[in-house]
Amino acid sequence: MIAFVSGRVAAAGPDGAVIDVHGVGLSVQCTPATLAGLRVGDHAKVPTSLVVREDSLTLFGFADDDERTVFELLQTASGVGPRLALAMLAVHTPNALRHAVAAEDLTALTKVPGIGKKGAQRIVLELRDRLGGPVGDAAADLRAPARAEPWREQVQMGLINLGWSAKDADAAVSAVAADLDGAETPPVAVLLKSALKKLSRG
């Protein structure tokens, strides 16, 4: 596998770039996020993923290692090839995709050209456990409503770790919050038990 290419940007177009690596021009298909950071004549180091087909060798380039990792994970879902995976990353950031899959947000997934409702359902089903939740600063941004009440995030993560879906966990946490209605917040362990009771009733 070619993990990255490093060299001068010889050319850049709407869907890819050519990187001059010691006199060899490597054509790299890129996401918009990658292309935004490339300038002709500048030196660049681009994380890559090599896709091998019977009749072709195609090098895909990314803004960072996380984008490349998500690109490769997306292709483990049935019906998702490299072109569709690249399109998904053109529409959504890696964290936005993680969030959409974890929250079973079919509307977000169907914004990608080539993905219908059934395809989105299949992607959620097959990738939910592989992609994981959002990471880094963007993870905090996606959970912004929970930041005012740290217990919400702790209970939600506890439920997800116990095997509940992100959607069910969100619903249970919201129900527990509604019961509190401004009252003093009990320990997280007590809140977790309350959330589990609500889920078992559901």
TrEMBL record:
GO molecular function: ATP binding; four-way junction DNA binding; four-way junction helicase activity
SUPFAM superfamilies, alphabetized: DNA helicase RuvA subunit, C-terminal domain, Nucleic acid-binding proteins, RuvA domain 2-like
Signal peptide feature range: none
Residues of the Helix-hairpin-helix DNA-binding motif class domain: 72-91, 107-126
Protein's UniProt keywords contain Plastid: no
Keyword Plastid listed: no
Gene3D superfamilies associated with the record: 5' to 3' exonuclease, C-terminal subdomain, DNA helicase RuvA subunit, C-terminal domain, Nucleic acid-binding proteins
GO cellular component: cytoplasm; Holliday junction helicase complex; Holliday junction resolvase complex
UniProt keywords, alphabetically: Cytoplasm, DNA damage, DNA recombination, DNA repair, DNA-binding
Region (Domain III): 148-202
Compartment(s) where it occurs, according to its Swiss-Prot or TrEMBL record: Cytoplasm
InterPro entries: DNA_helicase_Holl-junc_RuvA_I, Hlx-hairpin-Hlx_DNA-bd_motif, NA-bd_OB-fold, RuvA, RuvA_2-like, RuvA_C, RuvA_C_sf
Primary subcellular site in the record, as a coarse category: cytoplasm
Pfam families for this protein: HHH_5, RuvA_C, RuvA_N
Protein's GO biological process: DNA recombination; DNA repair
Assembly notes: Homotetramer. Forms an RuvA(8)-RuvB(12)-Holliday junction (HJ) complex. HJ DNA is sandwiched between 2 RuvA tetramers; dsDNA enters through RuvA and exits via RuvB. An RuvB hexamer assembles on each DNA strand where it exits the tetramer. Each RuvB hexamer is contacted by two RuvA subunits (via domain III) on 2 adjacent RuvB subunits; this complex drives branch migration. In the full resolvosome a probable DNA-RuvA(4)-RuvB(12)-RuvC(2) complex forms which resolves the HJ.
Similarity section: Belongs to the RuvA family.
Domain notes: Has three domains with a flexible linker between the domains II and III and assumes an 'L' shape. Domain III is highly mobile and contacts RuvB.
Function, in words: The RuvA-RuvB-RuvC complex processes Holliday junction (HJ) DNA during genetic recombination and DNA repair, while the RuvA-RuvB complex plays an important role in the rescue of blocked DNA replication forks via replication fork reversal (RFR). RuvA specifically binds to HJ cruciform DNA, conferring on it an open structure. The RuvB hexamer acts as an ATP-dependent pump, pulling dsDNA into and through the RuvAB complex. HJ branch migration allows RuvC to scan DNA until it finds its consensus sequence, where it cleaves and resolves the cruciform DNA.
Descriptive protein name: Holliday junction branch migration complex subunit RuvA
Species annotation: Actinomadura chibensis
Phylogenetic placement of the source organism: Bacteria, Bacillati, Actinomycetota, Actinomycetes, Streptosporangiales
